[in-house]
Design goal:
Elements: H1 3-8, H2 11-25, H3 34-126
Length: 130
Amino acid sequence: MSSYLRDRMPMGLALLAVVLLGWMAVPVRGQAPVEDLTSREQAVQRGQLKAGAAYRAVQEAQYEAKLAEQDVLNAREAHQAAQKHAEEMKHRLDAATRALAAAREREAKARKDYEAALADVDKAFQKPPR
């Protein structure tokens, strides 16, 4: 059996191939009836086809599992990035909220100073001229 085939077959198929090759090399003492050989060969072929299909299913499932694993890793990375971004946005929101509160305090103080200045002007108009 070539190393190419041996490297690409699952262990069960490789063992089956070795057994079949060894069985074929053993000299046959008595000739079995033709229909027995034919049905045996058909059974072997059916078994090989089933084994091949099952192996392809295993390979496909492994591939799908690898893709799913990569999806999980990508989603986890995106989730962590989103959490980090959300934390940064929360800090920006907190800073903006503090800046708004400070601006409103300055506005209230300025309004109070303005109203005091207007009251002073009103008082000045109410004083009799000299």
